[in-house]
Amino acid sequence: MATRYITLKKTDAAFHQYLSGSVDLSFRPIPVKSYNIGTADEAITFELVPTQTQKSATVPALIFRLVKPKTFVLALFPFFYVFFSALGYKGFDFLYTFLATLAALALLSALNIRNDVVDHYSGFDRVNVEAKPKPIARGWISAEKAQKISNLFLLAALILALPVIWKYPMVLGIVAVSGFLFFIGRLLQKNSYKNQHFGELSLFLLSGPAYFAGLYWAGGTPFILKNVIFSFVWGLGVLFLIQVNNFSHIMTSSQNQIQNTMTKLGFDRAQTYLVFHWLVFVFSWSVFHIYQRDFAVSGAFIFILAILSVHFFYRIKRIRSPMGSGLFRIRKQAYRIFSVMVLFSSILIAWPTLWYLIMPLLTGQP
Amino acid sequence: MNYKIYAPEDFPAYLPKLNALYDDLFSGGKGFRSKLVNLVSEPLAIGANTQSLLAQTIEFIHNASLLHDDLIDRSHLRRGKTTAWLKHTPEYAVLAGDYLLARVMVNLSHFGNIHLVQYTAEIISDLLEGEWLQDSVVKDYDVTLEQLDRIHTLKTASLFKWCLRSPFISQQNYNKDLHFLLSEMGAILGQLFQRSDDLLDYDIRNDEGKAVLGDLKSGYLNSFGAFQCKSLTASQKKLFIKSQTLNDVYKVYSHDLVQGKQLFLQQVQQFDDLNQKLIDLYDHHLENFEQLLEPSQKKLSANLKPLTEVLYWRRKPKK
Asked: Do B136 and A2 touch (CB under 8 A)?
């Protein structure tokens, strides 16, 4: 049987219905190609897949793919850091810090799903076609339903955050700053599909200093200078992941006039930038840990991370094409080296406390 | 149709080797692109002189890319003959390609339709971008089908788009909706043509006797190669890349040759199914396109309908 298609312009009455998936339940409209994205002439061709033949994932698999648990490290590691650094503080409130982290995880899930929905509506998914399409692009779930799930996670985040804000009103400051950044981004259309510089800055601030501040205040502990410094270092690391991801799509993004740091720099200079960015991050990270722990303790980890980084730099500079598999390999390698950094950081941060707990067991002395 | 000479200044005899080089190169070609231009031009009642110009333009652009391609790839044969760079010199091959592109610009400028000149220049730019990118993925055996599609859209598909759109532009018909559909249809035709050509490398529907596994041996994973690699394990892929014969490819799937060939042909079937969806998309656009045509132009739709049969399935259209 021939595949059925329909092409709709943005100006067509049914355009939004088809895009959100809120049409006749006997078929699922899956956008296969977008034209003139972000212009008045925008149009989309939809493949009309009969619902009976539409393959879909199990509910857990669907939620897993939507929520992207791999990104949870961005919320969990700061909690880990705050927990171990604040453990000795007399007034540390573990419960509310934990609640704040759960709220952050729910918010992150909501944002990950919303990101997929936005990419679907904006056409970003049709521009940057991945070998493994996202759930909405696969037709596993309509954009409308995905948005509803995102809203549920957002509600969960709010419910979890309310008792924290009630007990520690300072946390409201972080919520206000986040909301302000989001509002300004929308108002100036700076945080849009086409112009992503503002989004990069917002992500750096929100994932780093703002989030750390929120966790410390949720625990009733002060946000002291050394932790402020680490929060900026962490934000730099998270921003690096964003840049690597943008680099992996540099050609298609450039062709669609998306403006971000990578497309502005161009292929050759973006490679140099990524090396520089990670170098600055590793240097900052190393200095922080040497200062906190001394070189004898941190030296081995710094050395291993440095070796891995040199290999990483070599691989980045060897990439010949904005179109080949090298880009995605570099992205994978970036995520791996970031994970190693998180592991090392976790050990360095937790070790003094764990040693304090383990020592009596080993020596038999209290 | 002889499109070598459109203007009296084309191919002056005083330039050494140029005419011989041209005759060698063009004599073996099928001239499919110029035929496609004529298929579109006739229902539009475009004059013979203009048709001749359009036919020359597309063949010159295509053959210029072949001249440069053969030098870049260091190919020894083209259309059963020694390649131009090898038979003459690399310098002449480069200059001959440049000459063809220059004549295109001169003749189109004299024609006087600035939109046509602009569009042709864009297509040449796209073609060169595609060439540049294709060169950058040689020996990349992890390149995906989606990535190759982008390269082919620039390289192969852009010329097919030109074949469909240029006759309308030459008549100063700039209807947005019409050109949008022609562009999409041209892109699909180009993609299907490329994918069918890539299947020839694996001796599928290879009536023209193209050398088997030529792309793979040159270090280039074509679209069907990339499609197969998607479902291969790392060890299977290592074997696949080293294949020198079709039996080697079958052995990637199974030690038993008969079973291996069956599994390979299943991959061919899946690839065909994927491309059938593209053909259905082409038909969808063609339906919408037909509604934009004047009654006197409806024959154009009938001319365009069987192209997918010819280009992908390599079958003569049913009458």
From this structure: no
